[in-house]
Design a protein that fits this description.
6-stranded mixed sheet; globular
């Protein structure tokens, strides 16, 4: 029989993040301490792929990869799996998880079940953990918003929301216009 003393020195944050990485058969993220399975629909994946296809060539030029790998938010009970993150290929090699500040861009595509999480919770946390660019593709509102210049109170610059069909400029280091026609 276990006693409380058996668990002295166990870091609950580390234990929770270890557990979520070892869920059999599914990927899951932790949002404010709640484990949520990641199971996007094909419609959701199509929207992410539309963005990924446009940024991938520039990401390669920058020596980066695009993916949906794990992002750790140390000191919190958060472990995110973004729809798309652009990270240095050198940092990605051999990494189990990266920090939001290690990214060049994070993209989240909303679903009915996670809309507020992507628009409110993740926006706040990504800014807090210094993700330089955060792009939200809001399928329910049919809009796209780019957040930049993270600060202690959140992102200090907001470009949008723009209706689908509007060209949205990704600043340096991307320096490209996203075509959002196919997101509708």
């Amino acid at each position: 029989m276990s006693t409380a003393a058996d668990y002295d020195g166990v870091d609950p944050e580390r234990a929770l993040k270890y557990a979520v990485q070892h869920i059999k058969g599914d990927r899951a993220q932790i949002i404010e301490g709640i484990i949520e399975p990641v199971s996007p629909t094909w419609d959701h994946e199509a929207a992410a792929e539309t963005i990924r296809d446009q940024i991938r060539p520039r990401a390669r030029e920058l020596g980066c990869v695009t993916g949906s790998g794990n992002l750790d938010l140390p000191g919190s009970s958060n472990w995110y799996i973004p729809d798309i993150a652009v990270v240095s290929a050198a940092q990605a090699k051999g990494a189990t998880a990266l920090l939001p500040q290690d990214t060049l861009l994070i993209v989240e595509v909303t679903s009915e079940s996670n809309r507020d999480t992507d628009r409110i919770v993740k926006r706040k946390r990504y800014a807090e953990y210094h993700a330089p660019l955060y792009l939200v593709v809001d399928r329910q509102e049919q809009s796209i918003t780019l957040y930049s210049e993270p600060g202690p109170l959140g992102y200090t610059r907001v470009d949008g929301p723009h209706p689908f069909g509007t060209r949205v400029r990704l600043p340096e280091p991307f320096d490209l216009d996203l075509d959002t026609d196919d997101l509708a």
